[in-house]
Every structure is written in structure tokens, then in C-alpha cells.
Automatic annotation (TrEMBL):
Gene3D superfamilies recorded: MetI-like (1.10.3720.10)
Name of the protein this chain belongs to: Carbohydrate ABC transporter permease
An individual GO BP term: transmembrane transport
Keywords: Cell membrane, Membrane, Transmembrane, Transmembrane helix, Transport
Residues of the ABC transmembrane type-1 domain: 78-283
Sequence similarity: Belongs to the binding-protein-dependent transport system permease family.
Bilayer-crossing regions: 12-41, 78-101, 113-133, 145-167, 188-213, 267-286
Length: 301
């Protein structure tokens, strides 16, 4: 009697092929960033003569030395960005989680109104000038770290994502069991809903973290104090000063030798590395919660 073929087993040849395809795809994703890192450590003069090479003819730290000439300013901007990112992500998760849970409950009388209100803010906004007046005059947050946190704290799109997760991923039986035990809405939310919502919260937390880390526009509007300038804004100011020096070199007192030795392309790549490398470490922290999303939300019989 012939043995039936088990379709769940993959032959070694197919296994090797799948691993090769996955490895090639991973290299294609990682290589651009690695190439940027290599260029940032390349000598500026060799870029003009030899172009961009995977293995440069001459290695140099001049790009990083040029950026780190700012001294404590760079470290201070890192501190401001880390503070804004951590506090902003916590505040954003708290507000979005509470709002999304309220509009996901069928027993909430004003569920439809607040859902439409959130969707309306996705389609229409007050504009930059009214927002600036509210933040600087009504709230008085000019030159305050909170001016970098509060404008990005609530995102209607994230509310809709988390609302959908609550509806589809949190069974009504769990909430009903909490009510049978005499728990109130807030206790049900903190003890039952939040532990099961870690994958959804991790997704929103990652989006919020990236938003706060990459934000530079709010600092341009609300921050004049150099001690409160975040990283992205400070790197943009360095690049703007480099462009200003290059464009006005003919009318300035800067010598031609200094201008030629000033890193341009390598300094830009170094800025990308300095701005991107720390946030990469946030992905492994959130990744494990994405895997849990395959198993949470079920009700045990």
C-alpha cells in the first residue's frame, strides 16, 4: 500500500530555496541603510573622484567630527528628543486607548457622535495659523516641551485602528464576565481589556514613537530656545548652515580651502545615521507583541 504524501512537510530543496529568497529579500531591505553608513565613513574627496563605493578607498570620520563640533548641543538635542518621544508615546497611548475603547462599546450612548467627530478631524483640520494661536496664546506653550508633545498626542487614524482592534479582538464575553463579577467600566478596561490589547497598543505605540522621533516641524514653529531643540530640527539647522555657507561662499570671508574640506554628502549621510540608528532599537521591543496578535482574543471554553 502506497504511503500518502504529507503535504505539510516541505522537501529540503524547497526549504533551501525559501531561505535563499527570504535572505535575499532581507539583504535588499538592509543594504540601503548599510550603504548610507558606509558613505558616512567615507572621505569626502574620494566621493568626487571615485564615486559611491561599497568599499571606499579612504575611510574618514570627518563627517562625524564636523557634526560633533556642536559639542553638548547634540547630546542635549538627543535628550530632548528621547524625553519627547517617551513622554509623548505614553500620553498618546493613554488618550487614544481611552477614546477608542469608549467608541467601541455598543452601550456608550454617544458612540456614533464621537466616532464621526474623530473621522471629521481626519478630513478637515483647523489649519496651521489657528493651531499656532491655540498652542502659543491659549495654552501658552511657546518654548515648552509640551508644545512638541500635545499637538501629536491624539491621532484620529490611530483611534480608528485601535477601535477596530477592540471590536474584533476583544470578545464581548470577556467584558460581560467582568460585569458579572461586579467590575466597573474602568476596572474592566485596565484589568481585562488592556492586557489583551498589547498587540494593538504596540502597533499604535510604534507609530507614535516614529512620529515623535521624526517630528521637526513643531520645533520649527514653537521652539526658539536652543536648549529645547530636538534632534531632527537641530540636524536640519546644521544642514541649512552648510548650504548657506556653500551658496554664499563667494561673498563670505571663508577661505576656499576650508570650504573644500567641509564635508557635504558624507555629513548628510552621517545625519541620517545619527537620526535613524537609535530608533532602530525600538523595533525589537514592539516586534514580540506583533507575534502575540496571532493568539490573543480567543475565549476559552
Amino acid at each position: 500500500m502506497k504511503r500518502k504524501r504529507d503535504f505539510h512537510q516541505v522537501s529540503p530543496a524547497w526549504n533551501v530555496a525559501f531561505n535563499l529568497i527570504a535572505g535575499i529579500f532581507a539583504i535588499m531591505c538592509v543594504f540601503p541603510f548599510l550603504f548610507v553608513v558606509i558613505i558616512s565613513f567615507t572621505e569626502e574627496k574620494t566621493l568626487a573622484t571615485d564615486g559611491y563605493r561599497i568599499i571606499p578607498k579612504a575611510w574618514s570620520l570627518e563627517a562625524y567630527q564636523y557634526i560633533f563640533k556642536t559639542g553638548d548641543t547634540l547630546l542635549r538635542s538627543y535628550g530632548v528628543t528621547i524625553l519627547v518621544t517617551v513622554v509623548g508615546t505614553i500620553v498618546s497611548l493613554l488618550l487614544i486607548a481611552l477614546y477608542a475603547y469608549a467608541v467601541s462599546r455598543r452601550s456608550f450612548a454617544y458612540r456614533r457622535f464621537f466616532s464621526l467627530f474623530a473621522i471629521f478631524t481626519m478630513l478637515f483640520s483647523g489649519g496651521m495659523i489657528p493651531t499656532y494661536i491655540v498652542v502659543t496664546q491659549l495654552l501658552g506653550l511657546k518654548d515648552s516641551v509640551w508644545a512638541l508633545i500635545l499637538p501629536l498626542a491624539v491621532n484620529a487614524f490611530y483611534i480608528m485602528i485601535l477601535r477596530t482592534f477592540y471590536i474584533t479582538g476583544i470578545p464581548d464575553a470577556i467584558i460581560e464576565s467582568g460585569k458579572i463579577d461586579g467590575a466597573g467600566e474602568f476596572r474592566i478596561f485596565t484589568t481585562l481589556v488592556l492586557p489583551l490589547s498589547l498587540p494593538g497598543l504596540a502597533t499604535i505605540g510604534l507609530f507614535s514613537t516614529l512620529g515623535y522621533w521624526n517630528d521637526w516641524f513643531n520645533a520649527l514653529l514653537y521652539i526658539d530656545d536652543p536648549n529645547k531643540v530636538p534632534l531632527q530640527s537641530m540636524l536640519m539647522r546644521i544642514e541649512s548652515s552648510m548650504q548657506f555657507i556653500q551658496q554664499n561662499s563667494a561673498n563670505s570671508s571663508i577661505s576656499l580651502e576650508i570650504l573644500q574640506n567641509m564635508p557635504q554628502d558624507t555629513a548628510r549621510m552621517a545625519m541620517v545615521v545619527l537620526a535613524t540608528l537609535p530608533i532602530i532599537f525600538a523595533y525589537p521591543f514592539f516586534q514580540r507583541y506583533f507575534v502575540q496578535g496571532l493568539t490573543v482574543g480567543s475565549v476559552k471554553e
